[in-house]
Amino acid sequence: MADLISKIKTMEPGPQTIFVEGWVRTKRDSKTVTFIEVNDGSCLKGLQVVADRSSIDNNLLNSISTGCSVICEGKLVASIGGDQKVELSATDIKLVGECPDDYPLQKKRHTLEYLREIGHLRARTNTIGAVERVRSTMAYAVHRFFQENGFFYVNTPLITASDAEGAGQMFQVTTLDLENVPKTEDGKVDYSKDFFGKRTSLTVSGQLEGETYATALKNIYTFGPTFRAENSNTKRHLAEFWMIEPEMSFCTLEGDMKVAEDFLKYVFKYVLDNCQEDMDFFSKFVEPGVKDTLVHVVESPFAHMTYTDAVKELEKASDKFDFKPFWGCDLQTEHERFLTEEVAKRPVIVTDYPKEIKAFYMKLNEDGKTVRAMDVLAPRLGEIIGGSEREYRLDILKARMAELGLNEKDYWWYLELRKYGSVPHSGFGLGFERAVQYVTGMQNIRDVIPYPRASKQADF
RNA sequence: UCCCCGAUAGCUCAGUCGGUAGAGCAGGUGGCUGUUAACCACCCUGUCGGCAGUUCGAGUCUGUCUCGGGGAGCCA
Questions:
Q1: Secondary structure, 3-state, A185-244
Q2: The pLDDT value given to residue A322
Q3: Which of A77, A288, A426, A444 could join A389 via S-S bond, C-beta 3.0 to 4.6 A?
Q4: Which of A's residues 268-327 have CB atoms within 7 A of nucleic strand B?
């Protein structure tokens, strides 16, 4: 019945009756009129509803307070006041749901830490509301980019029996009675009695399954939840997060990097074009200048360097680091930030890492020492994308697995992709929340997902 | 998991040398006002995170637990 406030604010004043539904953010009384700011979440700034105290029931107006839900009826008029073009001159107001004065959201600014304690209400704040609008827009942009570029959306399984994916600690999935676990004769847990007849866990990555569909549909992407049981307590880790993993057949690392760059730029530009009010808000109150940074990223090419060259750069500035860089070391957070913030001053793609610090499935280079891996490092965040060209040569892949002590039987179907019609292919993984963090400037990943799941935290 | 910091009114915080609790906002009352986090005056609000200890006396010192934040590791 009622239009969204985001639409109403773009309409011209007119004689027709319109309705506004939403929640009261603040109310101010004047001598003859009452101002009610109504927000319905469709945009950052709400609509000012003006109620003439001589024509609207004063008892009703007095009972309206911050947090109430209301339906207002009236005409859109040009606003006399300064901050808005139009406002609703109310002819009738219905109080739908009252809001007692112990409402946890005051008109004043709250800390994000406090808002995390009221996860069921925090979406009604400017900041979290803006984050969720941007998050939704970004999710839409992700699908648009891939759908417009010949990728198919594949849903890889959330429950997996492959306990050897190696990307992190896994959450076990079971229907066994934990008070009375069935045991085999030699005293181990008898998983044949479990729901799936074997030990299962929540997925830590859809990549391996994604590869199988890429070798059939050519270009695919996944976009779904991922679970890691790491006991890591940081502002950029979650136990449950959303990951985007494209996989392209007949594609080398060069193509992979191009897709990664085009993809990030597309999503960023889409947000800049479609979330202007929210981006202005982030740029003003959350991370000064974040909007200009995004514009800069969209307009300039990403920097490129090999791991070997990156280490040379780091060695030049060795004094600045707690952890001294050397060829073969894993890049520390401080190193990644130096490369992207000081050396490149923009996103940088680092390639060709030592095989020892990367996963078994990455394609071995001619030198026998490095693999065709690439990490996209972004200022402020560090690694935002990790990807690689996959090893498609069966003999070399088997040799790598043997080096690392991996059991071929656990990967039999993955290896068969290399046996039957193998093809060079590449892909990458993007942590969706980290991308939302990057775009919004939000410091803590727990504030860019509606209900964060982390160690000792599964409220709401 | 390791290191550092923190927990005081509904919210944001101050609290000196160990001496018995304070400001702004919110709420209430009145005033003023086409207001924009409105403004002015007055009023109300506390298991000082939990448990133990030192002390005549603990918000303050010690131990411990819980929760939160920052950093590290791991990664996306």
A1: CCCCECHHHCCCCCCEEECCCCHHHHHHHHHHHCEEEEEEEEECCCCCCCCCCCCEEEEE
A2: 81
A3: A426
A4: 323
Query: Quick check: A236 CB within 7 A of strand B?
Result: yes
Q: How far apart are CA A343 and CA A358, in angstroms?
A: 23
Check whether residue A240 has its CB closer than 7 Å to nucleic acid strand B: no
Give the pLDDT confidence of A64-118 residue by residue, as tens digits: 888 888 999 999 999 887 678 899 999 999 988 888 777 888 777 788 888 888 8
**Does residue A448 reach within 7 angstroms of strand B, measured from its CB?**
no
A112 CA to B18 C1' distance (Å): 35
Provide the residue count of chain A.
460
CA gap A410, A160 in Å, rounded: 12
Give the whole-angstrom CA distance, residue A140 versus residue A130: 15
State both tokens at A180: 């009375």
The token pair at A435 is 């991308």
Task: Give, as ranges, the nucleotides of chain B with any atom within 7 Å of a protein CB.
Answer: 1-2, 10-13, 24-28, 32-38, 67-76
DSSP, res A454: B
Nucleotide lying nearest to A79, CA to C1' measure? B34
A405 Cβ contacts chain B strand, under 7 Å: no
Helix or strand or coil: residue A451?
coil
CA distance A81 to A85: 8
DSSP A37-53: EEE-SSSSS-EEEEEET
Query: Rounded to whole angstroms, how far apart are CA atoms A41 and A338?
Result: 39
Name the pTM for this structure.
0.93
